[in-house]
Specification:
Blueprint lengths: L1 H10 L3 E2 L7 E2 L3 H6 L19 H5 L3 H27 L5 H21 L10 H13 L3 H24 L3 H25 L1 H12 L3 H30 L6 H14 L8 H5 L14 H17 L6 H14 L1 H7 L4
Antiparallel strand pairs: 1-2
Helix pairs in contact: 5-6, 5-7, 5-8, 6-9, 7-9, 7-10, 8-10, 8-11
Length: about 325
């Protein structure tokens, strides 16, 4: 009977069921990633076979049946106690989390937030991923999320203060660097906290980690600088190539991602980089469009971008060949 009970316990499969997970099987991903350390104890062996049901006990003497049931219960209790003790030895207390696990995560986040594009970060992504997984399994998701938000908020407040101290001629470029650096960091931070996102933020807060972190940049950096940044962008737009086209494009697209309603502050500027911002062209405004084109051409010529003789010759040949109908067709009319 003892051998039978041991075999049945060995053949059972542990299940994990807590407030963050829904019945994760011991044979599933948890066993593959972290081995047996985080798996809860196996349940008591389930009776199987005719000798364990009522019919099987009818033919036995009462004393013998009671002795067999008592022995099985004692063995099960010993097995449960041993497996429970083994599991509890691996419990991560809040003190363990604060002294061991969060410091590792804190250091990795620091490096990701301050890295330059293309830098090599000497951290173990597997180790950080494993830390997050263990903390989620041990019910520390709420504390970890709070620590992460506080960490990134403090970083963004420092970034905002540095931007405030920037001179006007460096303001646009430094904002572009801060925006690009932060968005690049999110590409690593969000996947590392995927388990916290899935089993706490999405299920309990009904939100998404990436959206929360983008909102932090909007509130602590972009909103504080948009009214200083926008006049500088408009001024740079009126002076071609005062800043590189890639910098202008990155900032305008980034601002649109953070808060689309900021388009109303400078529709013409956003329309150069975001499609379908302005309303469709209408026939009554063709003269205005032509005047805007001529103004842009004059500005380019004044800034040293006049076309060469060969370009003028080629343009003249095209106009001669196509005639006035080509000009009309370029505006959508024939």
């Amino acid at each position: 009977m003892e051998e039978e009970s041991m075999e049945e316990e060995g053949g059972g499969e542990a299940m994990m069921d807590d407030q963050n997970h829904n019945n994760w099987g011991a044979g599933g991903y948890g066993r593959h990633l972290l081995g047996e350390r985080l798996l809860p104890p196996a349940g008591p062996p389930r009776p199987a076979g005719p000798e364990h049901n009522g019919a099987g006990l009818r033919g036995c003497e009462p004393g013998a049946a009671a002795g067999r049931v008592g022995a099985a219960g004692a063995i099960a209790a010993i097995n449960i106690s041993a497996s429970t003790s083994k599991f509890l030895m691996n419990v991560i207390t809040i003190e363990d989390y604060k002294s061991t696990y969060w410091p590792k995560l804190d250091s990795a986040i620091d490096q990701l937030l301050t890295q330059s594009p293309g830098d090599y970060i000497p951290i173990s992504y597997e180790q950080i991923y494993s830390c997050v997984y263990k903390c989620v399994c041990q019910q520390h998701s709420e504390q970890m999320y709070s620590d992460l938000i506080k960490k990134i908020t403090n970083h963004l407040e420092r970034v905002s203060k540095e931007l405030q101290a920037s001179p006007p001629d460096l303001y646009i470029e430094r904002f572009n660097v801060a925006l690009g650096q932060y968005m690049g960091a999110l590409q690593s931070i969000v996947p590392l906290f995927i388990y916290m996102n899935k089993f706490y933020i999405e299920t309990k807060l009904n939100r998404d980690l990436k959206d929360d972190l983008i909102k932090l940049f909007t509130e602590h950096v972009a909103e504080k600088h948009i009214y200083n940044l926008m006049p500088l962008l408009l001024e740079a737009q009126s002076t071609p190539f005062q800043i590189t086209p890639s910098t202008m494009a990155n900032i305008v697209k980034g601002l649109y991602t953070l808060r689309p309603e900021w388009v109303q502050m400078a529709p013409a500027l956003f329309s150069k980089f975001i499609p379908n911002i302005l309303p469709p062209a209408v026939e009554s405004e063709l003269q205005e469009y032509a005047a805007q084109d001529q103004k842009l051409q004059r500005e380019l010529i004044q800034n040293g971008f006049a076309r060469g003789d060969q370009s003028r010759k080629r343009a003249g040949e095209e106009l001669t060949y196509n005639g006035s109908s080509a000009c009309a067709s370029s505006r959508g009319y024939r």
